Amino acid sequence: MTALAFSASFSTRRVFLLLIMLFLPLSVHSQKKPDFTYSETHVITIEEENNTFRLKSKNSIKVHFNTENALSNNVFYIYEPSYLKVEDIDAYHNKRRIYDSAIDYHYADFSDVFISDSRTHTINYGSRLKKNDYIRYTYTEKYDGLNYYPIQSIPNIDSVSRYELKFNHPSDIRIAFNFFFPGKKPVIRESHGKTGTVLKFTDFEHHEPVDHYPFNGSLGYVQVLFYKKDSLLNLLEPRKFIKWYSGLTPMIPEVDSVALTMVPDSLFRPKNSLQKIANIYDFTKVRIRYLADARKGHTITPLEPEYVLKNSYGDCKDKSALSVALAANQNLPVYMALINSSDGPRFEGSYIDRFDHVICAWDQGDTTIFFDPTQKYQSFGRIGERLMGKEALVLNPDNPRFVAIPVSIKEPTLRLVINANLDSLKKAEVTITLSEDYLPLIRRLYDETSSLKRKNALTRIINDHLYKLSISDLDMVAVNPIIVTLKGRADLSRFIISSSTKSYLPQSPFRYGHKTLYKRDNDSLPLFFNKLIFSEIKINFSGDHLTLADTLIARRVSGLPLAYETRIVKKNNGLLQAHYLFKVLQKEFSGQEKKLFIDFFKTFKKYRKKLLTLRKNNPDK
């Protein structure tokens, strides 16, 4: 999903930060001197006319090249999203202005956006840079209103000597700030005058990039709050946000009778509301191709349902708005819901930068059921794991509110049942059931890939989770709305070490987490993960063997959804079963929770290297 799916503001500023990091590498602390010294200043002027605010920001970036290593980084970027205008770009080398021919632009190119008026400006200094030179470039950003002023991000690049925001504003306007510092808080200096406000940061402490952390590109974030007298002008309250947004687009779009002729009558035939909404979801996710028209006016507002139906394309907000319109035609309470599908800075309330995705919310009594019309291969009633645990702003005009999407995983999403004989470990049979995010992935493979590519992909998906177990020749044997079943072969010859009297198998067959997790024990930054894990493996052994029944190794963490378990049990038929379970159903860990998680991970890694013993029964003794 493109960053332009709802808001280009915060997401595309992160693209800009990534571009900065390409030319300004993160410092190496063993160096006596950083490659670069960086400073950034914004001078923001606020004007009011007839209760309408205009905002103009004059920005200046200065980079000093301290070492020879820095000189190959000679191209600089300014991103211009469709909701603002970038003007008056000037660039200087030392004190001399460079030629206009060195400044160019190209239109943003996203894989799922076929038309856009967002641009990236480039400033190319060529080969003229030398050690101890400095460059400076300035430009102006013009915003249509205060609501479009984005969260400001302080880049985590080499040595940031100064970051400053200066506001010139009418005397009845007051400026305040919220901060989010994922690492160490810098020195903050604020000065507030009648018509001017200044925010300045110094004493930044650069941090090296670490794994499982989405904020490597930033030292911190600033949310600017605008007050007129004592009234907050920002859209933090859901009711204030929806009032503003409904002035741009209807919260419950209508679809006219002509456009409805393009919708099959079968969608509305069921009397059951649940089935009607499921039909609308299936129609929208399949019949409307995911493509975005990201020109100004459609960056944060959806296209009309009639247009989407006629042209059979749209992005998340277009597909969601169409779903709401079709449901409203049947008097069903479905609403658009705004959400952040990635990990952004943590500020309270509703603001444009917070959201990058639109889904649907069905109010069914006291319960809210979410569905995502962009997920072509997902079943109705299931929501992607990337959205679980996040808050969505439900755009119900009568009851706008934030609703937390629960982690709804109650059963293993990856379950293997292996039937093995100790005398032929390479020829075991395996049955695999998959659910949640695996289900749309498998459906897509069967719909869009060849047989050979599909088999290779299936094997890779399963084997990536397994330690010394090898699965092959997988094929789908059954599928329903919540589970897909595969069958194939399992090779246990590396997993089980066998002799004439004993067999040994690992206490854990799961592959989870990289060794770099150990290094995260030494920092104060939180841990973030993209995926939830709930896996189970059962190995049924046939043949004449014996071990102690009910051998159990388990570790659970009180108050956290973390667990692993190994159990060897004797079944009613006298045969043995090795039962393994592994669960991590939380995506963020900080403070004491982070410490508990890393301890859990270290213990799990140790158990993976330990062995269990199966003693073969000798009837002659």
Top keywords for this entry?
C8orf32 fold; Immunoglobulin-like; 8-stranded mixed beta sheet; globular; disordered N terminus; alpha+beta; 621 residues
- How are the strands of the largest sheet arranged? 5-4-9-2-1-11-14-13
Helix coverage percent:
10-25%
* CATH-scheme architecture of the largest domain: Sandwich
Morphology call: globular
For the record, the count of structural domains works out to 3
CATH topology name of the largest domain: Immunoglobulin-like
The overall average pLDDT, rounded, is: 87
Helix vs. strand class: alpha+beta
Distance N terminus to C terminus? 66 Å
Strand content: 35-45%
Low-pLDDT segments:
1-23, 26-31
The major pleated sheet works out as:
8 strands, mixed
> How many β strands by DSSP?
37
Alpha carbon gyration radius: 29 Å
Treating each run of at least 4 consecutive H or I residues as one helix, how many helices?
9
Which CATH first-tier class of the largest domain would you pick?
A: Mainly Beta
Task: Please tell me about this protein's structure.
The protein is an alpha+beta fold and 621 residues long. It has 3 domains: 3-232, Immunoglobulin-like (Sandwich), CATH 2.60.40.3140; 239-404, C8orf32 fold; 414-615, no CATH class. The strands form 9 sheets. The protein has an 8-stranded mixed β-sheet with strand order 5-4-9-2-1-11-14-13, with no helix packed on it. Strands 27-28-26-25-32-35-34-33 form an 8-stranded mixed β-sheet. Strand 21 (357-364) and strand 22 form a beta hairpin. It comes from Caldithrix abyssi.
